[in-house]
Request: fold
Amino acid sequence: MGKVKQTCWLIGLTLLLGCQPEVQTPQAEVQSPAVPYQAIKWRLATSWPKNLAGLGMAPERFAQLVEQMSNGRLSIDVYGAGELMPALSVFDGVSQGTVQMAHSAAYYWKGKAPAAQFFSSIPFGLNAQQMNAWLHYGGGMALWEEVYQPFGVLPLAGGNTGMQMGGWFNRIIHSPEDIKGLKMRLPGIGGEVLKKLGGIPVDELAGRELYGALQTGAIDAAEWVGPYNDLPLGLNQVAKYYYYPGWHEPGSTMEFLINKQAFAALAPDLQAIVKVAARAVNQDMLDDYTQGHIAAMNALIDEHSVEIKPFPSSVLLALKQARDDVLAQEATKDPLFAKVLQAYLANETAVKRYFRYTEDALNYHE
Reply:
């Protein structure tokens, strides 16, 4: 059978059997319809007045970054102190799932977890740069997560005020004897140090309450943050002296608190966005405070004629010794506190040794 006849016979047989010969045609590109995502909404409660310079703006900037980077897939509504819950109830709010996030300071939770205080600021301890290094590259974050693990809370560094001022006083401090009986708004371990020298720490006053407390004599002294926040509160109007340095908070780290179950429910890319946004705001807040403090201090000195006074060396030495005693005593009460203290002090010693040859070596008198 010739080639042409054979081909015709095969085609005819195919048609007879009801089959169609396979024809190769270009495949059209199949487009899947876009699957709409469901936007996730979180609530974030803060310990600060809404939009307060520095402290209050950090969570606002964080929420903006998260929404932008996620293209709207995760949006976060920020609430100031008292809008959803009291300022010092935000940790419980996150732990219990009432809100997904909060922005606050770790030393407020000393009653729940004494070791939490190391992740805000320790008297005579690490400054902002040193704290960031310890947290992110020196093992500090792992310890912080361990401290909050029983509460179902994930911490992230959430900004830094830089070194604070020593506070506003209505009496002159000449010696350690002048600390006795001094009623001062001073939270955390700093308050325990003050108590060691006979002072009376008051830690439940919020920033907006300090003006009235100083004005009425309910307290003799108060620390809040530094010029950037102190000037708008008008504390210079109700206290005579502005003392330095801020021995109690040389580098005050703020925190983002995240409910662990809510975080685990996020897609991996959204989890990364939350962490990256927090890291960006952590640095942004320090930059904001540094420039804000500079401008506000100039105003306090040049426009308001505030009398700025240094703590005498004898007072600082007594406070430092009291700090060491307080830390040692607290370590005997709580094994986790002792564990974090050992790591913190080892890092503090190494940091101060290095800085003695670098930044500190520039501290000369012009």
Q: What stands out?
A: The chain is about 45% helix and 15% strand. Confidence is low (pLDDT under 50) at residues 1-35. The first strand starts at residue 40 and ends at 46. The longest helix spans residues 268-302.
